[in-house]
Each structure stands twice: as structure tokens, then as C-alpha cells.
Design a protein that fits this description.
Layout: H1 7-18, H2 23-29, H3 34-47, E1 50-55, E2 58-63, H4 65-82, H5 85-110, H6 127-152, H7 161-173, H8 178-181, H9 188-203
Antiparallel strand pairs: 1-2
Helix pairs in contact: 1-2, 1-3, 1-4, 1-9, 2-3, 5-6, 5-9, 6-7, 7-9
């Protein structure tokens, strides 16, 4: 039976996977009531787990170091209570194989070497080059589906990653190039990095470990 995480865990975890988020974004991430989210964030602020942050034109909530530890403690407890750790580890192992190919595709999307500059920025004038990258991203979408299915079959909070990635890729196919790597929208890169962070947090791993 698929486990449904508590709202208390989901609010804290949404801040973790988003990095920094306002109340509406936290509520939207797991389809939670905005009033409940605000109440919990204020409680967590009192506990020292989250803090309000402002950076340039961004304003929202972020985890403190203590909040990060609390989030990982709750996630580990959830894995132990539901006996789903082995399934998440297996999904993570499959994901990291895909991840190396995703990073290569993103690099290729951002850089197109020229005879005089090996690190020349991709100006997207070469449609064949860009299409090769999009083809690679489609291959990754196919690889992501079974990973998402394995995770969602155990913990409901992992639902939606393959669908969100596919939706962003669909927009990129329609020449909306921002949907490949733009950080402020639900682009392919945003969704992929969020899933990666979700897996790392759930298993208590550091990025790059």
C-alpha cells in the first residue's frame, strides 16, 4: 500500500526540495491548504527550522541547518516505518545512471564548441545541434518513467516528477527554449534537480557523494 506522508513532513520537505519558496509555492508542491502551510511555517520558524530570506527580487522561506537535520530525521523515520528504504535506494541507483547523461545533455544545450572556442555559448542557431539535445532529453524522459513509478509505488510524495519533466519537454519541443534549463519555471532542469534533491534528502546523502 502506498504511504501518504503527513502534512507536517510535506511542508518542511517542500521547502527543502525547492530551496527557497513562498507560501503559495510550498502549498502547490504537495497540494496543501495555504492556511495550513502558513501556520506550520510559523511554527517551524519558532522552532528554528525555517527562516524568511530575501535575495535580490526573491523572497520566501528556507531551511536552517537545524531544519535540514529535522527534515532528514523525519524522512529517515518515514523510510523505517514504511520499510521502503530498499526501494528508494534502488530507484536512486537507477537515477544516478540517468543523471550523468542528463548533465551531459544540459552542458551540450548551454555550450556549442566552435573551432576557436571550445566553451562557446550555444546561441541556438544550429537547429540540428539543439534537436540532438532534445532527442537525448526524450531518451531520459523514457528512462525516468520507471524510476518515478518505482518511487510512487512506495511513497506518494514522489508522484509527478516524470509528468512534470515531460510537460516541460513538450514546451521545449514547441521552441520554448527556456523550458529546458530556466531556473524560475518548472523546466526540465528544475524538475530533475528537484528529484535529485528529494532522493538525496530522503536517503540522507550529500550531493556528489
Amino acid at each position: 500500500m502506498v504511504h501518504v506522508s503527513s502534512s507536517e513532513l510535506l511542508v518542511l520537505h517542500a521547502v527543502r526540495v525547492k530551496g527557497m519558496a513562498d507560501v503559495a509555492t510550498v502549498a502547490e508542491r504537495f497540494a496543501l491548504d495555504g492556511g495550513l502551510v502558513m501556520d506550520l511555517l510559523l511554527d517551524y520558524e519558532a522552532f528554528g527550522w525555517v527562516t524568511r530570506v530575501r535575495f535580490a527580487d526573491l523572497d520566501g522561506w528556507a531551511l536552517t541547518a537545524t531544519g535540514r537535520m529535522e527534515n532528514e530525521r523525519r524522512l529517515a523515520d518515514e523510510l523505517d516505518r514504511t520499510a521502503t528504504r530498499s526501494e528508494v535506494i534502488a530507484a536512486h541507483e537507477a537515477f544516478i545512471v540517468l543523471n550523468s547523461h542528463f548533465l551531459a545533455a544540459v552542458t551540450k544545450w548551454q555550450i556549442r564548441p566552435t573551432p576557436t572556442d571550445a566553451l562557446a555559448a550555444n546561441d541556438h542557431s544550429d537547429t540540428r545541434w539543439d534537436q540532438q539535445v532534445l532527442d537525448d532529453l526524450h531518451d531520459l524522459a523514457r528512462g525516468l518513467r520507471p524510476v518515478g513509478a518505482q518511487l510512487t509505488a512506495t511513497l506518494e510524495r514522489f508522484a509527478g516528477y516524470p509528468e512534470r519533466y515531460a510537460a516541460a519537454l513538450d514546451r521545449a519541443d514547441r521552441a520554448e527554449r527556456a523550458w529546458v534549463t530556466q531556473p524560475k519555471i518548472d523546466s526540465c532542469h528544475t524538475v530533475w534537480m528537484e528529484l535529485h534533491e528529494d532522493l538525496l534528502a530522503t536517503l540522507g546523502l550529500e550531493r556528489g557523494s
